[in-house]
């Protein structure tokens, strides 16, 4: 079953969890293992919350055992772009690198749907300047290709614009679904370059508040990156 999980879509993994044919802990450990194996090369993740993911998976299994009503993403590991706030994880914005004290709205909704938040994904382009600014607080860092995600299809190339880490993670099957953001192609371009589904959702479909860049509310939206259309739809449900 372990190797099979690599190739299964999120909706099928969710079915197996509901039927108790695989546990949330097994699913989480499988994808943590893939991240550990391939992320040093692909650099798709900014931060991986091993302990937090395992605790979420144990709670998810207790819900299954207790006969609780399960959400559409129950037990499905996912990650979000590193400028999306996840409580307890680093949050990257211009000149800052702080630990977030709360979840963004989309992360709250993912948790309510049962998703396991495994970590945050690296960014490039405009996002790269934010990521790399951590070593120089208060200023933008020069662009550095060596710090960004690489394409799982060709590691001499990059996987697109700023949601690149999420696209690389989905394409390499490090996770079934990831969440990016898009104000000018930041999800759509990495999806196209990486051979995955990427949605620039209608503004307001997934509420978000960008305290650091309120103007982004006018153009940007959050949306899924996944290998299957059905998985992208599932993450929006």
UniProtKB/TrEMBL annotation:
It comes from the Bacteria. One of its GO terms (molecular function) is catalytic activity. It holds the Pfam family Amidase. InterPro entries: Amidase, Amidase_dom, AS_sf. Residues 26-236 form the Amidase domain. Signal peptide: none annotated. Belongs to the amidase family. This is Amidase. It comes from Candidatus Frankia alpina.
